[in-house]
Amino acid sequence: MAIISEVEEETSSSSRPSILPFRATFDSSNPLGFLEKVFDFLSQQSDFLKKPSAEAEISAVVRAAKEKLTKAEKKPVEKESVKPTMAASSSSEPIEVTEKKQEPGPIAPNKGNGYDLENYSWVQTLGEVTVNIPVPSGTKARSVVCEIKKNRLKLGLKGQDPIIDGELYRSVKPDDCYWNIEDQKMISILLTKQDQMEWWKCCVKGEPEIDTQKVEPENSKLADLDPETRCTVEKMMFDQRQKQMGLPTSDELQKQDILKKFMSQHPEMDFSNAKIN
């Protein structure tokens, strides 16, 4: 868009200097061109630009114009932000605010690397899970109902609702599982894991899950394992400690060593963007 600006004043009296007409075309795509013509006119018709404070005065005019523009742009935004508030306050209908619930994360295991629930507790080693259920004193074995299947456990007393009835976290070996009652007040169930190299997060699915990275196996029992199993357990324990400290696991360290050896053998290659997968 082009705008022709014209300023013209005739001489009104001999006591006042004449003001010459100024003509310039404003092109919105090149505003600086218009300003250059203004400054050319000023330099020809006045000594304003020769003043030491000319730049400062021009900068002050520019700042004032920018502040005025900023205030003008803020006003519509403030009005729009007020409208929803007024509408909400004038509405007679209640406003429902739904809070997003955070799902509980893994919890720390008990001293036996399991968890203590309201009606029973469980502990574990890599190979077994032991479930302890307190019952009324004087309970006889014939009053106990216990069913141990490959993927399910049910335990209770005759004529009462089951204390435990659900799907196991992982499969067990039913033929190697058994239960007994101790001092007629505590039922103990031994479950032999099918996979004896995995820590269970819970005994029955749906229970709170423990953080298996915080499991602490008893070092005294490592001596009872065969060399291969002991090596695997020690590796798992090392990896868990490394993860807790935010450090690389044994597999990651091994990959880093391989990369370092390869880099030393090939110094002519650029490994600045190399990644370990």
Automatic annotation (TrEMBL):
Domain CS: 115-204
Pfam families registered for this protein in UniProt: CS
Function of the molecule: Small heat shock protein required for the establishment of auxin gradients and for patterning of the apical domain of the embryo. Involved in the specification of the cotyledon primordia. Also required for normal inflorescence and floral meristem function, normal developmental patterning and thermotolerance. Acts as a molecular chaperone.
Protein name (database record): Protein BOBBER 1
Classification via PROSITE patterns: CS
Lineage per the UniProt record: Eukaryota, Viridiplantae, Streptophyta, Embryophyta, Tracheophyta
Organism in which the protein naturally occurs: Raphanus sativus
SUPFAM superfamilies attached to this UniProt entry: HSP20-like chaperones (SSF49764)
Basic and acidic residues bias locations: 69-82
Annotated GO MF terms: unfolded protein binding
Cross-referenced InterPro entries: CS_dom (IPR007052), HSP20-like_chaperone (IPR008978), NudC_fam (IPR037898)
PANTHER family: NUCLEAR MIGRATION PROTEIN NUDC, NUCLEAR MOVEMENT PROTEIN NUDC
Subcellular location: Cytoplasmic granule
Biological process (GO), any one: response to stress
Region ranges (Disordered): 69-110
Keywords carried by this UniProt record: Cytoplasm
A GO-annotated cellular component: cytoplasm
Gene3D superfamilies membership: 2.60.40.790
